[in-house]
Amino acid sequence: MTLSIPPELISTSEEMLTLRNQQLPNVTESEMIQAVRTLLIGLGENPDREGLKDTPKRVVKALQFLTKGYHESLDELLNGAVFTEDANEMVLVRDIDIFSSCEHHILPIIGRAHVAYIPNGKVIGLSKIARICEMYARRLQVQERLTLQIADALQGLLQPRGVAVVIEATHMCMVMRGVQKPGAWTVTSAMRGVFSEDSRTRQEFMNLVQHNPKF
Ligand SMILES: Nc1nc2c(ncn2[C@@H]2O[C@H](COP(=O)(O)OP(=O)(O)OP(=O)(O)O)[C@@H](O)[C@H]2O)c(=O)[nH]1
Ligand SMILES: [Zn+2]
């Protein structure tokens, strides 16, 4: 089948990059490395000592990996894996590991996403649900926006009867610094279609994703 991806979804990452490039000067990798070096000096370290010699380069590489979602698009990750199927029961992929970075402190957000939808003539390759989570997680985020972006992507791609996304996560900026509450979990949800209109459908989903601490 031909896959019709709404243009606003295809262009999400490109739009962001264009916007950034329009407003900000180009920065070379060596300038980024230099910036980390400056940071180390500011922290009272000697960036030339053996253990730190390659650290600025490593930090830049690590940050580029953690934000690689800016350079990905739904179109590429889907690879056409949307199929016509006469299925109309809930599909749930739960316990999708999430490693994101909070946009306020650039510290890790670690958690799990549970993503469900009720098809309406189209299904998506299961791994692609995890890949969609991954693309949006690998950006600077707030948990609320990450949750909405995943829901909106599925809604736009499949026009299903409903989409439900729950993310439960711990924020290292609330654990290792600041308020220092390692036991606090943040739970966010986005409900679309029948999940928002029908409390029984929503309840069925919530029962299936009951918090199940593993770590
Ligand atoms: N809503 C929301 N807030 C977040 C998220 N990640 C981090 N934050 C919050 O962003 C806020 C930034 O608040 P500020 O007072 O500007 O920063 P801060 O002084 O570092 O705040 P503290 O963490 O309270 O020390 C904090 O309350 C963080 O907990 C997120 O995903 N969603
Ligand atoms: Zn933070």
UniProtKB/TrEMBL annotation:
Superkingdom of origin: Bacteria
InterPro entries xref list: GTP-CH-I_C/QueF, GTP-CH-I_N, GTP_CycHdrlase_I, GTP_CycHdrlase_I_CS, GTP_CycHdrlase_I_dom
EC code(s) of this entry: 3.5.4.16
Pathway membership, UniProt: Cofactor biosynthesis; 7,8-dihydroneopterin triphosphate biosynthesis; 7,8-dihydroneopterin triphosphate from GTP: step 1/1
One Pfam family, short name: GTP_cyclohydroI
Enzyme class: hydrolase
A single MF term (Gene Ontology): GTP cyclohydrolase I activity
Catalysed reaction, written as an equation: GTP + H2O = 7,8-dihydroneopterin 3'-triphosphate + formate + H(+)
Keyword set, alphabetical order: GTP-binding, Hydrolase, Metal-binding, Nucleotide-binding, One-carbon metabolism, Zinc
GTP cyclohydrolase I domain ranges (all copies): 34-209
Family listed: Belongs to the GTP cyclohydrolase I family.
NCBIfam families documented for this protein: folE, PRK09347.1-2, PRK09347.1-3
The protein, known as: GTP cyclohydrolase 1
Encoding gene (name): folE
